[in-house]
Amino acid sequence: MLSIKAESLTKEFKVFQSRPGLKGAFRDLFNRQYRVIRAVDAIDLSVNQGEMVGYIGENGAGKSTTIKMLTGILQPTSGQLLVNGYDPHGQREQFVRTIGVVFGQRSQLWWDIAVQESFRLLQKVYRIPEQDFKPYLDRMIEVLNISPLLDQPVRKLSLGQRMRCELAAALIHQPALLFLDEPTIGLDVLVKENIRQFLKEINKEFGTTILLTTHDLADIEALCSRVVMLDKGKIIYDGGLQRLRNEWGDGKKIHIETVDTYTLSQLQAQTEGMKVHWIEEGPMRFTAILENGNAKVPEVISRIVEHVAVQEIQIEEASTEEIVRKIYQEGLVHA
Ligand SMILES: Nc1ncnc2c1ncn2[C@@H]1O[C@H](COP(=O)(O)OP(=O)(O)OP(=O)(O)O)[C@@H](O)[C@H]1O
């Protein structure tokens, strides 16, 4: 079953443009001029139930605008959109019961009341029967380790504590789809790791679909097997994290330490016909740089170990962060 189905989804904003000078301001009074910004430009996106998808892009790429349409906050300018089988904007009331939302900067908990009171209020908002509410909430409290925080007002919590409570609040009605916008921003390493672990668990146990928007690519690496990359309102990559690495992560390096002394040409000879560039790092240390998906690491290694006495081998892969930076710099469509 599809959680999200978007076809040619587009959002345009009309932005008022003022003319310079006093004369311009006067003319603006009678005849306003607008410029149209296409924040999201005819995107097609299908997400299956249970998938964990990373939605990434530079500032202003159109991520928030997409999420706002997917959560029903904004009405699309054009295109088709079904989320959990609903039109998010048109059928908002039924639709919101099927999603959970965590927007890093905004809270859905009431600031001045104790956390558990917020949970109770949300139970009423979503009309969750007590027999469903209690055991599930107890489970969240345990896994997220928020029991000591329940009787504290939200304003007294640290960011990491609040984030864990936000997650419990977003999941209190057991939504099929969870939207996360920068869920680990500003958190320390340990809390980040706990939250990632928790998200993996709920995805596995309840089959919750997760759409994650983040600038922290470590979140994506830890959680998502699929990445959708947006640039100027268009999807420029939609596929596996591994494919992204294979296609863009050129410069994959193999560091080799040999037992005996070899010349550079002896090593070069082993990978003849392959797109491998060799560098001599020291008397018995060499580096092979593999070109973009053409030369495969296992094949290079097996050719080397057949004829060269090797002491140590180390493989260095480009990080997702480097790959993404490169894609934006080169501005090429590889998908
Ligand atoms: N309400 C609005 N009115 C006019 N323009 C808008 C509005 N909201 C967004 N935009 C414009 O649409 C484009 C996409 O913005 P959006 O906030 O979706 O990007 P983003 O990828 O979420 O960026 P960031 O990572 O900075 O949050 C930008 O050019 C932005 O200025």
TrEMBL record:
Gene3D superfamilies linked to this entry: P-loop containing nucleotide triphosphate hydrolases
Keyword Nucleotide-binding part of the UniProt annotation: yes
A GO MF label: ATP binding
Ranges for domain ABC transporter: 24-257
Keywords, ordered alphabetically: ATP-binding, Nucleotide-binding, Transport
Transmembrane portions of the chain: none
Pfam families: ABC_tran (PF00005)
Native species: Polycladospora coralii
Protein name: ATP-binding cassette domain-containing protein
SUPFAM superfamilies, per the entry: P-loop containing nucleoside triphosphate hydrolases
